[in-house]
Amino acid sequence: MKLLNKTLLSMAAVLISTYALAADKPGKSAISSAHYLATEAGFEVLDQGGNAFDAAVAVSAALAVVEPASSGIGGGAFWLLHRNEDQKNIMIDGREEAPSAAHRDMYLDAQGEVNRSLAMHGPLAAGIPGHVAGMVHIARNYGRLPLKVSLAPAIRLARTGFPADEKYIRLLKPVHKHMLRWPAGRAIFLHDDEIPALGAVIKQPDVARVLEQIVLTGTKDFYHGETARLLVKGVNEAGGNWSMEDLAAYKVVEREPVRFTYNDYELITASPPSSGGVAIAEILNILEPYKIAECPEAQRIHLVVEAMRRAYRDRSIYLGDPDFVDVPVAMLIDPQYAAGMRTSIRTDKATPSSALAGIADVAGGKHTTHFSIIDSQGNLVAATLTVNTLYGANFVAPGTGFLLNNQMDDFSAKPGIPNAYGLTGFEANAIAPGKRPLSSMSPTFVIGEDRVAVLGTPGGSRIITMVLLSILDFFAGNGPQSWVSLPRYHHQYLPDRIFAEPDAFSEEVQGQLRALGHEVQILNRQWGNMNAVMWDRRSGKLEAASDPRTPSGRATVK
Q: Are 307 and 286 in contact (CB under 8 A)?
């Protein structure tokens, strides 16, 4: 961490400073989240005198209750904060950590192959959660209100329940058989062992109790007290490997965000152990000289894909937990490094991933959530929260009421072997006790003299490219509704193909891309759930938008 912080601080010193936001304030607030009840929770706290950071605690806790497929107090998060009064930008790292009993070969079978089920389902897949520690840290260091106020909406939702909507039911179907394996979770999230009917009320009284203990004790109960004991007992009796010392040792880390300029705007985004900010910076630096907005569509997509390919290659080799490995952030986001990457790009032909240096060692979202906030004082929050894949590890420790994450699958279980998202990794992201797995979460601010954007999305390995495409759309002059609605495409180095949503490319563009040498796979589904807000500083207008792919989301300005 010290090496990374020194690198980032020295890097920030040579960057231009953030455009001052203190001179003009929007006067209203905007929140966009993946669930209308979470957005309402945020405004409930703002209406009681809270700021964006109090609202962030309220939204984080509410999403943990009403979106258990995507986040929860058994998971982790990155919260990107901008405090207007002193222009402070900081990333709160509440990422999960490997328990002390973890080791690099823990998911390998007798033949040395990865047992993916162990890394995805059940307590052995879970890292030590950071969501609670992050919320308490934000409330105490950046908020105005006590936790009693900011957690009240989530406590109420957990106790009285919320109606199961189409999304809750749809996302439960793929993991139904896994949920049946463990009684505690089965009793909460299923009804008579079946997927609940539309509108069925989901109550979580144990979660309400845990949240009430957070109000009373901060992190003490969750990491040191009765909830900690229930977690360790439940995890270990079901085959996990946690200890009381693991929970007691967990600490939130404040990290300097990645900061760089593009088209005279400053971008502030997630730093390691997220790969998002570094990858976005590298891609935009590679693209900057091309004037891609003026390129024909197929040529523009080709150039964007070639930049994606190179950034994801670097992700697999260099990125990991900065407290354990020396991550060369300054090098990777340097425009001169991008210039070197650019020399290998041909405008008339795709580069096979196998031709890029570093691949020789390689052998042959999914569920997360995001919200964005701008308050009336100009404070900003972009937060991406996760339990990793759908409903996390599908496991609840008896008496706790909440699902645990399966974030251990985000480590590289074996060098060069893809994880659940098809992402490969090497030594930098190998499993080690106390280490935080590499993430793609990319909460981001784009700050200029005329406009300010706050955005992010879930989507596993595709988070980075979704945020990237929306940033490019921002620079094309469009607003949040356009960013969240864009047809999406993605390339992640391996597998070596372009993935695209059904309506992303015309037949003509597909043919042109294939003629350039790209393999194109049109999927039969959409992905992501972006939530974004924008402040037009010229007019003072706030805009908020929630991804139309998920009707349960809500974006509100008031």
A: yes
Residue 540: left if φ>0, alpha if ψ -120 to 50, beta else—which one? Answer: left
* Residue listed under structure tokens 């759309």: 473
Cα(420)–Cα(119) distance, integer angstroms: 9
Give per-residue pLDDT as tens, 424-463. Answer: 445 788 899 999 999 999 999 999 999 999 999 999 899 9
- pLDDT value at position 16? 34
Q: Which residues are catalytic?
A: 368
What values do phi and psi take at 453, rounded to 5? -120, 145
Lookup: tokens for 475: 């620079």
pLDDT in tens, 375-429: 999 999 999 999 999 999 999 999 999 999 999 988 876 555 554 544 444 578 8
C-alpha pair distances (Å), 521 with each of 156, 361, 394, 468, 511: 45, 25, 30, 20, 12
- β pairing state of 201-202 and 162-163: antiparallel
Q: Which stretches of the chain drop beneath a pLDDT of 70?
A: 1-23, 357-366, 413-426
Q: How many CB atoms lie within 10 A of CB 497?
A: 15
**Euclidean distance between CA atoms 437 and 430, whole angstroms:** 8
Residue 210's H or E segment, with its range, is helix 205-217
Pick the CATH number of 256-365+442-557 from 1.10.246.130, 3.90.226.10, 3.40.800.20, 3.30.460.40: 1.10.246.130
Do 52 and 400 meet the contact criterion of CB atoms below 8 Å apart?
no
Which amino acid is residue 10, in one-letter code? S
Domain ranges within the chain, ordered by starting residue: 25-254+367-408, 256-365+442-557
